[in-house]
């Protein structure tokens, strides 16, 4: 089963460049230039139809906040990024510069090649043709995965009418959740949730054009509760104490998030934060009022030294006037009133 969760513009920003833009030429990686690294022509992919091969990366590549160390190159003009290969290979978890029904086996001049120099991993589909429409010409394009998380699509020869042929260009990620099957209590059902998709307008993809995707910060990058809840780089993040992980609950670790009841922990922590913040604000307000009152009393006494009531206040304020102190053994502030009488303003610790 596959279910789609709508959510756009949260993980990547992108820019497109046309034939006249300088960036188009700069983003194209010349595979014949030895300075980029050793190029490998994959024999199986270059002579097959609807085949995919898993390839290891020499670096950790961040994709939707997850670090990938291997990817799957497909003859159909895309890279599969999932861990589990399934029949819905083209539906979710992909990097697709030009996903279409290509058949590299049609011509000896068609190749699928790649290079990895430790800083960038590039896949190039060279001279591939559409099955059943081979006479319309060959297509050459590439996808580059940079170590810092940037993704680029570059095109040299490309003319496909998406109205006549199904084409997909963009990014997608998903997570899998295992739940009891409704048909049989003894079996399990695997459901793939596509939680985000970047879908490009294929009419804007032309020969000698390029697209650059820049990865945005995600909750997964925070390694502490404090950063998770206070960082202004991300929003909607929650900290799970059991997993020691920051997440918005919508990523590839969704199964663990559910198994360890992190959502329930998050709701509880949110309430605690609310109570804690309210207590802190009340304490600060009380302290300011106290300070202001003391200043007024001091001024009053200074100008009215013979009045009896101020003298009474001076004598009694040490024993009666409330004051705030911080107790190391307590998670927050405690308001002390009189000798031996304590009134707690904060009794619950924050989520951290």
TrEMBL record:
Membrane topology label: Single-pass type I membrane protein
InterPro entries assigned: Plexin_repeat, PLXDC
Places the protein is found: Membrane
Residue ranges the record marks as coiled coil: none
Protein keywords: Glycoprotein, Membrane, Signal, Transmembrane, Transmembrane helix
Record keyword Metal-binding present: no
Gene Ontology CC: membrane
Keyword Signal: yes
Membrane-spanning ranges: 280-301
Pfam families cross-referenced by the UniProt entry: PSI
Main location: membrane
Family: Belongs to the plexin family.
PANTHER family on file: PLEXIN DOMAIN-CONTAINING PROTEIN 1, TUMOR ENDOTHELIAL MARKER 7 RELATED
Name of the protein: Plexin domain containing 1
Organism annotation: Lates calcarifer
